[in-house]
Amino acid sequence: MPVSEQLVQDVVKEVISRLQMNPVRTGYRGVFEDMDTAIAAAEQAQQQVHVMSMDQREKIISIIRKKTKENAEFLAQTGVRETGMGNVGHKIIKHHLVAEKTPGTEDITTVAWSGDRGLTLVEMGPFGVIGAITPCTNPSETIICNTIGMLAGGNTVVFNPHPAAIETSLLAVNLLNEASLAAGGPDNIACSVVKPTMESSDVMMKHPKIGLLVATGGPGVVTAVLSSGKRGIGAGAGNPPVVVDETADIRKAAEDIVNGCTFDNNLPCIAEKEIVAVAAVADELLHYMVTEQGCYAAAPEEMERLAAVVLTPKGLNRKCVGKSAQQLLAMIDVKVPETMRCIVFEGAKEHPLISEELMMPILGLVRAQDFDDAVAQAVWLEHGNRHSAHIHSRNVVNITQYAKAIDTAILVKNAPSYAALGYGGEGYCTFTIASRTGEGLTSASSFTKRRRCVMSDSLCIR
């Protein structure tokens, strides 16, 4: 019986439909139908990882770095296409940052005491299988960054990714396992499930084989992890204010602030979310932002209309998160050139588009009477998240006062926010910044437990 052209077309449509419903391609390494099976596979792999030498772990990590750079553009494009958030060029940069500046086995160190009564060592040992929840804002970046650090510490990891970034997340999981196999390591150093849900997350958090939970996301998921009864690392919300005082280089401050705020359309949790400027320099700052840095000065009635679109009774409108300034303004029928990078306006600190963490390139400016007032308003705006804050000032006394008052895991001075991640600044990169649980910028050592080994009256040879 001959096959009709129509039948072929119908079959093709059905296959495409199923692939669209389930973006996971067959053959992805480390991807399982259910969480229990994923955890069992990760546990088996961890038994091999645990006994690996540091050199063997580092060999795997070096290939992960190589593959991440080779696939940076593809992962970035997939992330933007799938989530509808962010900027491909900036996501490529973030993948290179992860590949080049995430600490590996060099972060696993030993402390030793030697004396008359012998030798004592404190070693960093693995938890075993770590359960991790990852966001849709930096999906593949977070998964790759976490796995490098966790593997360096001798762990394997099971991810429950955000449902809005399944394909991107599982591509990253597959890449990690291919890297391990290429280095002669085991499969399933990183695992996940075909369809991550709240239920699969609950299984992971309660599973007896999971010794450590790591959550990177909103306050709800972090609270759930910290309420699980297990050891938890929580990287949650922030609303980072940037203070500008009279001593700052105002022109440079305008450039740095806009560059930081617009990086990946303001998706990074560390990005500048609002400005608190001393009144004496506020007008000058706005002038440079508008005339030199591609900022659109929105009128009060435009901001009212924008607030009605961006904010809903249930919180942020997800369709606005990670969108460009041009896309956001188009939602209220305001057309601007593609060169317009940021929307700026002036308001009180209580304005909803200032007090809420938006994760989009909208910057509200709050005027302060003097520096003390600026600090007080910035502390209020940070809402006690203790996450990130920024300042532009040449006055060391002012910087010190602000740093003590704001008490955040990150404080960037006279640079764009992304300098905190080693891009234009010193230090390593991470996409899990644990402000609530105190680890700060996590690295390999964050995913280990300390073990003391004591040899009494021996091995002291001095």
Task: Compose a concise summary of this entry.
The chain is of the alpha/beta class. It is built from 16 helices and 20 strands.
- Tell me the CATH superfamily of the largest domain: Aldehyde Dehydrogenase, Chain A, domain 1
CATH fold call of the largest domain: Aldehyde Dehydrogenase, Chain A, domain 1
The number of strands is 20
What strand order characterises the main sheet? 11-14-15-10-9-16-17
| CATH architecture heading of the largest domain | 3-Layer(aba) Sandwich
Structural class: alpha/beta
Helical content band: 40-55%
Mean pLDDT comes to 93
**Terminal Cα span:** 90 Å
- Which segments are poorly predicted (pLDDT under 50) over 5 or more consecutive residues? 11-25
CATH class category name of the largest domain? Alpha Beta
Beta content: 15-25%
Number of helices: 16
Give your account of this protein's structure.
The chain contains 16 helices and 20 strands. A seven-stranded parallel β-sheet has the order 11-14-15-10-9-16-17, sandwiched between helices. The chain is 42% helix and 20% strand. The chain is globular. It is an alpha/beta fold. It has helices spanning 5-21, 35-50, 54-70, 72-83, 88-101, 139-152, 166-182, 198-206, 219-226, 250-262, 279-292, 300-310, 325-330, 352-355, 371-382, 396-406, and strands at residues 31-32, 111-115, 118-126, 129-134, 156-161, 190-193, 210-216, 231-235, 241-244, 274-278, 295-297, 311-312, 315-316, 342-346, 362-368, 388-392, 410-413, 433-434, 440-441, 448-456. The longest helix has 17 residues, at 5-21. The chain has two domains: 27-236 and 442-451, Aldehyde Dehydrogenase, Chain A, domain 1 (3-Layer(aba) Sandwich), CATH 3.40.605.10; 241-427, 3-Layer(aba) Sandwich (Aldehyde Dehydrogenase, Chain A, domain 2), CATH 3.40.309.10. The relative contact order is 0.14.
